[in-house]
Amino acid sequence: MGESGWRWSDAWIFVSLVIASGAGRHRRSASSRRPEGVRLADVLSTADHLNRAIPQRDEVEAAVRRLLGAGLVSVDDGWFRITAEGEQLWRSRPSAGVATTVDTMQGVLGRRHAPGSAEWTLDEADHAAAVQEYVVRSIPAPRRSPEGHPDR
What we know:
Largest sheet: 2 strands, antiparallel
CATH architecture: Orthogonal Bundle
Order of helices and strands: HHHEEHHH
Radius of gyration: 17 Å
Oligomer: single chain
Shape: globular
Helix content: 40-55%
Number of helices: 6
């Protein structure tokens, strides 16, 4: 695929950001969501759940540049948000099961929106820290017996 079309990883990051931010909840108004958006660790966590893989730094950086340039997302001080235009695009997509949502969204992006190009970089250390945060959060806490009750 040429550089001018949307990549699967662009749709993967977009869908991950939508789901992580709660923008995909149809009955939830934009004003009821956290206004600051979501952190990179949340986007990576959702991406891993969608595709059983954590996006590489260069995949995230390229996708965010294209999505920013298209006006579908914004990033401010490490907070990722879906723009009103991005939310409208998401809400107007055809219904799809979770397993095919990224493929469906890639098609929607290709038909309805041209990829953009914006200056944005993701530092290797910031990506590594977000991956580490996600990994640590995903490790289940050890089970403890209730206080005052001996372990059995």
